[in-house]
Design goal:
By secondary structure, this protein is an alpha+beta fold. The protein is about 35% helix and about 15% strand. Helix 1 packs parallel to helix 5, helix 2 crosses helix 5 and helix 3 packs across helix 4.
Length: about 200
């Protein structure tokens, strides 16, 4: 599906979601376990930069279509479509439906905090499917470009044994998993950690 993610821009942004009188938002959080992406439907859902940005935006508190559209500078209809794709793939869910003037609206949230992408379930006939990885990196690049502060971005190539690579990977994962979060109201930071072995012939 060749969806447009940048050209559909709203004329006006909605800085806040409408809050029904007397409504107190609940503290909905993603489940604290890892979701493994394996099916072709899930791969397709994650192979679009805007859907990756929606997942990044839903990493903290849940949000409505209107809030996400304003945050990502896109149209409500576009955001609603991509949320439906993510919901059908099992990576996004509706955590609350509330009444507002003129109808009702949904609050969306990720189903889990961590999503692991494997090669199983996609690309069986054509080899590795790099769609989700490419979309994620593009989404992160767009977030870095919009960041108010200069992001920390370091790429270093190292010669490592299999044991060294395994230990470094475990250290990086533990570092991110054990990072303590500040109280609500503090700015959200994105953390992307990658460790990969270069394809043969690319090391010079």
């Amino acid at each position: 599906m060749d969806d447009q993610q940048r050209e559909d821009r709203p004329q006006e942004h909605e800085p806040h979601d409408p809050q029904p009188e007397g409504h107190q938002p609940e503290d909905h959080q993603p489940e604290d376990h890892e979701l493994t992406i394996e099916s072709p439907q899930q791969y397709k859902a994650l192979s679009h930069p805007l859907r990756q940005r929606l997942l990044l935006a839903l990493g903290g508190q849940p949000a409505t279509v209107g809030r996400l559209a304003a945050l990502l500078d896109s149209r409500k209809g576009t955001v609603a479509h991509h949320l439906k794709v993510l919901q059908e793939a099992g990576v996004v869910r509706i955590v609350e439906t509330r009444k507002v003037r003129g109808g009702s609206e949904h609050l969306y949230q990720r189903t889990t905090r961590r999503i692991a992408v494997t090669e199983r379930g996609a690309g069986r006939d054509t080899g590795r499917d790099a769609g989700p990885t490419t979309a994620l990196l593009k989404a992160v690049a767009e977030e870095c470009a919009d960041a108010p502060q200069e992001p920390v971005l370091v790429l270093r190539h190292l010669r490592l044994t299999a044991d060294q690579a395994a230990r470094l990977g475990a250290t990086l994962q533990a570092l991110v998993a054990e990072a303590a979060e500040a109280p609500p109201g503090e700015p959200v930071h994105g953390v992307l950690v990658a460790l990969y072995e270069q394809a043969a012939g690319r090391d010079g």
